[in-house]
Design brief:
The complex is a heterodimer of chains A (311) and B (206). Helix content of chain A is 17%, strand content 54%. Chain A is built from 3 helices and 15 strands. In chain A, the strands form 2 sheets. Chain A has a 10-stranded antiparallel barrel. In chain A, strands 2-3-4-5 form a 4-stranded antiparallel β-sheet. In chain A, a hairpin with a 3-residue loop joins β9 and β10. By secondary structure, chain B is of the alpha+beta class. Chain B has one domain. In chain B, a hairpin with a 3-residue loop joins β10 and β11. The longest helix of chain B is centred in the first third of the chain and has 19 residues. The termini of chain B are far apart. The chains are: A alpha+beta (311), B alpha+beta (206). Chains A and B meet through α2, β2, β4 and β5 of A and α1 and α2 of B.
Chain lengths: 311, 206
């Protein structure tokens, strides 16, 4: 029975993984139609929301024994819930050469460019626009691309395993095998460690832990997303459940690279994640397996759940 | 308190806390840049487009039977239909709601004109003196310009009189003198732009 549940959980993760590869393909199909400045605005919710996902659900308890093996394997699912206004964007560039945005026919015309419309997570039925103004008068307007998925959730799922129990240490690994997609190999891995601090203060009524995690996600040459987290966790174990919370200093970045279809120009940009800190609150139910749900809040709010089997 | 009760109490407290935190919305992370404010120079150029279009449609206010439509199919950069009605010595020129006259620039940009011009016809002179306050709006992408007339006279030639334009926080005065060049003053700042009514070209103050 346990094996069946575990297989199902990992199957969900693999499905999400395959979905990520397909989504990467769809994303590239849209991005190649627009230039860099448009792409930065269009992808901004993904760029900003993916890092907080990676850094979510890094622990479900602060308790790590000093002696005695603990291990687990399972799956984590995360979703960052975007602000409603992030389903659209508007980016304005002033005093620019319109030729950079509309081709050689517009070169030499200095003006304002207004790019806007649905983001990647916006309306899939409405195209965006890129409009050029000279002296406050519209001189060119082009339609661009629609949203890719109409949702406020930036989703992610990953398998995770941990082992520890020596001197209050635990090692965590997140890993998915490489799969081939239209946009190249999709890879994901992460590793980290956690150390229980109660050996320093054995009389504390709660468990305290510090940890570090580093993760990398790649979709061919299209996307590379890195995330790191330095976190402090506190938990209190009660019969059949553990209540936990924490604070983290974190960072994330996403590199995007593709070739623009119309001009053949290589487009590459890197954006640092805005979220640098988060507070976490969660609860772990320990029956047959460890099922935890948590909420993390920093600049963005991320919800996550995990199902881990082990001891 | 039993162990079970303590667990239940902790769970309820956590649920309450999560409920409070659930009100924590994510900050917006996508760019939402403001449309740049209209400058005095922008206002002058927008007024120039208005002047050009009024100059182009003006003759139709007097050269028509009792009820007529004039459809532009690209001449002077204009497309769309204006309606003209004559009754009781009055002329009424307008565009249908939702069907503005469209001015397309050489570079392909479009500016929409919603016009509603009313005036008194002088049959002998073949002119229409517009009623003070009649006018319309011009939409150029994200910018909307309102214009009204102050005794503007439309005829078979170039207009004569004054057009008031409001663009953003700026007020402009377009003065026609019956020639193919009109002058534009914005915010009464001492600078004068000119617009060629044949080409629509606006010239900055030297």
């Amino acid at each position: 029975m346990k094996r069946m549940i575990l297989a199902a959980a990992l199957g969900v993760a693999l499905l999400a993984w395959t979905g990520a590869a397909l989504a990467g393909s769809d994303l590239e199909d849209e991005l190649i139609k627009v230039g860099q400045d448009y792409a930065i605005g269009y992808t901004s919710p993904l760029v900003q929301g993916f890092g907080p996902n990676q850094n979510a659900n890094l622990f479900h308890t602060a308790a790590i024994p000093r002696t005695g093996l603990v291990f687990g394997i399972g799956v984590k699912a995360m979703g960052t819930y975007l602000a409603a206004e992030d389903q659209t964007f508007r980016s304005v560039k002033t005093n620019v050469d319109l030729g950079e945005y509309f081709g050689a026919g517009y070169a030499g015309q200095t003006g304002t460019v207004v790019m806007g419309g649905p983001t990647l997570f916006g309306d899939t039925e409405t195209d965006g626009t890129i409009v050029g103004y000279v002296n406050g008068v519209q001189v060119v307007s082009q339609s661009t691309i629609p949203g890719l998925v109409d949702t406020r959730w930036v989703p992610m799922a990953t398998p995770e395993a941990y082992i520890g129990g020596i001197a209050g240490l635990k090692v965590i690994v997140r890993y998915m095998p490489e799969i081939n997609s239209d946009v190249g190999k999709v890879k994901y891995w992460g590793f980290g460690g956690q150390w229980n601090l109660n050996s320093l203060a054995p009389t504390l009524p709660v468990d305290v832990m510090i940890g570090y995690m580093s993760q990398k996600f790649e979709v061919g040459t299209l996307v590379e997303a890195d995330a790191t987290s330095l976190h402090l966790g506190v938990s209190k174990s009660l019969p059949a459940l553990t209540v936990y919370g924490g604070f983290a200093k974190e960072s994330s970045s996403m590199d995007v690279a593709y070739v623009e279809e119309s001009s053949g120009a290589s487009v590459a940009f890197s954006v640092d994640g805005r979220q640098e800190t988060r507070f976490t609150l969660g609860v772990t139910f320990d029956f047959i397996a460890k099922l935890n749900v948590e909420m993390g809040h920093g600049d963005l709010t991320t919800y996550s759940a995990g199902l881990m089997f082990g001891m | 308190m039993t162990t079970m009760n303590r667990s239940l109490a902790a769970l309820l407290a956590l649920a309450a806390l999560l409920g409070l935190l659930a009100g924590c919305e994510s900050d917006s992370v996508a760019p939402h840049d403001a449309i740049p404010a209209v400058t005095a120079d922008d206002a002058a150029y927008q007024a120039g487009v208005v002047a050009y279009a009024v100059g182009r449609v003006g003759p139709y206010a007097v050269d028509a039977p009792a009820k007529a439509t004039h459809t532009f199919t690209g001449e002077f950069g204009l497309t769309g239909t204006v309606f003209v009605e004559f009754a009781g010595g009055q002329s009424h020129m307008y565009t249908a709601e939702g069907a503005p006259l469209v001015y397309t620039t050489e570079l392909g940009g479009q500016t929409m004109f919603d016009i509603d011009l009313m005036g008194t016809v002088n049959v002998q002179a073949q002119t229409v003196t517009l009623v003070e306050g009649s006018g319309g709006t011009v939409t150029s992408g994200d910018y909307v310009v309102a214009f009204t007339t102050t005794g503007l006279v439309l005829g078979m030639g170039y207009p004569d009189g004054v057009l008031m334009v409001t663009a953003g926080s700026h007020s402009g005065v377009v003065t026609f003198d019956g020639t193919n060049v009109a002058t534009i003053v914005v915010d009464d700042n001492g600078q004068t732009w000119t617009v060629n009514l044949d080409t629509g070209a606006v010239t900055r103050p030297s």
